[in-house]
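Expect sequence, tokenised fold; for instance:
***
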Amino acid sequence: MDSKYSNSEKTKIYEEYIKSSKDEQYDVIKKTGININSYLKYKQQEFESDKKDDGTLDGKTVTNSKKKKEYEYVNSMKEVTYEQRLVLLGMKYKLNNKERGKVAKYINNLPNITKEERIDIFDKMQGFTVYKDGRIKY
């Protein structure tokens, strides 16, 4: 990540040697133009829920504290656009209707991707329903 390789070189290295088959997000990241450096930094983060003392050894999880930390981190990413931040968050969390509308408009206006690739992106997003005939609903 901190090497002097170009973004295209880092992308190739990640695709060929590092990326696991479980990284379903990466295809969306690549197709939506999210900066590889930003994505790699994001993937290295370990967002954990806060705990409050409830008298037990483990404590009680503070509701939505992990989600809040992740939102704060993603929203502080300066190398990605607002719509790309929504894409990152939308793959893990259901966005509100206004945000899903912005994501839909962004994805539908992406250049150089096919209808099937758009459908695949929507299918990986939370809060979107993809029908067999290619319709998308949110």
